[in-house]
Amino acid sequence: MLLKLAWRNIWRNKRRSMIVIGSVMVGVIALIIIDGLNNGFLSQMLFNQVDLNISHVQIHKRGFHDNKVVQSFIPDKKKVEKILRKNGKIKHFSERVVSFGLVSSAVSSSGVFILGINPEDESKITTVSKSIIKGKYFNGKGREIVIGSKLAEKLKVDLGGKVIALANRPDGSIGSEVFRIVGIFRSPSSNFDKTYIFVPIKTLQRMLGIGNNIHEFAIVTQNYNLAETVRDEIKQELSDKYEVLSYHDILPLLIMQMDLYKETMYIINMIIGLALIFGIINSMLMAVFERVNEIGVLMAIGMKNGKIFSMILLESLLIGIVGTVFGVFIGLGLNEILSVQGIDFSLFSKSLESWGIGAVIYPHLSLENLITTFLMIPFITMLGAIYPAWKAIKLEPVAAIRYV
């Protein structure tokens, strides 16, 4: 009965109720859009790095991640290959030679990370092959090189131009090679474009004088959520001579930032909730004072204070539920559209590229925050009715019936 009464009371003043429901809807839509935008921002910052270079899991000789010296070869790459091939959770893997060196053109030079790769394998691991804006992705033969657009600008070179790469060999001497540029890529990260170059793995091995040795296995799992599981499985099969790292281990600050954001969303929910509370208090107080005579009659015929209190709370809760449901549906619709089309922030492209995000942000909604919003907002609207409900049960029946 209370539920029926509460629902009817809401629509006795349709205009006021619609305004309050509308304010709840706007709050919920704002939360969903903010959540989607921030999640998209952080996800792109993380997964752009994962897709460009980091991959889901990496294997090195122990200590290589912290100190990338050329002598730190994978101890037994055939053993590692065997382990990786039999793991059904692994989608692809690629061998890499990694070295820090110097690349020079006729007019300038720059410190870079030189990655020696098998192009066919690497194209299944990273998105660099899809980011070529000039020329082509090399075939892995000869002295071909692919560089980023920012590095090309700095060196003042273009397709067909020649650059010289220099790097330390294990014996302390300097290895060098002349490369011809066959491709220029542009990624969402300007820092990556400035600091990474890709050459055939055989050519880099020869340049460094390391034979068939490699420094790294880059691995992509069937699903990025399996990264830590695969890491642990590989660790169990390898000795302490190896280090096996998931992208969580390689990018701890970004992972921590994403976790921190989840906590921040609770605060944002509370701020919007507090704004809603004041609107609910005002609306429900008006509703109570408009129905003082009616409440007095209910008291006079024996309705207990607890039921009157509950009825007013139910009215506010129903307003919150209706506003939240419509807000969630509208917010999800807008988020779905924006997640496909993206939001163009070209005006801030340089700043965004320095963060490794790109000029277009694609909102990504968090299910956890969506559920929190769905549960929290109706509860907050109900809290906003506690004071008006308390005022209602403090009325004296006789005075309330005579109230004009």
Q: What is the chain-wise order of helices and strands?
A: HHEHEEHEEHEEHEHEHEHHHHEHEHHH
Please identify the structural class as seen in this structure.
Answer: alpha+beta
Strand order of the largest sheet: 2-3-8-5-7-6
The largest sheet is: 6 strands, mixed, barrel
Spatial gap, N to C terminus? 27 Å
The count of helical stretches stands at 16
Oligomer: single chain
Helix content: 40-55%
Radius of gyration: 31 Å
- Bin the strand percentage: 15-25%
Q: Mean of residue pLDDT?
A: 84
Overall number of strands: 12
Give the topology.
Blueprint: H1 2-10, H2 14-54, E1 57-61, H3 77-86, E2 90-104, E3 109-117, H4 119-122, E4 132-135, E5 144-148, H5 149-155, E6 162-168, E7 174-185, H6 190-195, E8 196-200, H7 201-208, E9 216-221, H8 227-237, E10 242-246, H9 247-250, H10 252-290, H11 292-300, H12 305-341, E11 343-344, H13 349-354, E12 360-361, H14 367-383, H15 386-393, H16 397-402
Parallel strand pairs: 3-8, 5-7
Antiparallel strand pairs: 1-9, 1-10, 2-3, 2-6, 2-9, 4-7, 5-8, 6-7, 11-12
Helix pairs in contact: 1-12, 2-10, 2-12, 2-14, 10-14, 10-15, 12-14, 12-15
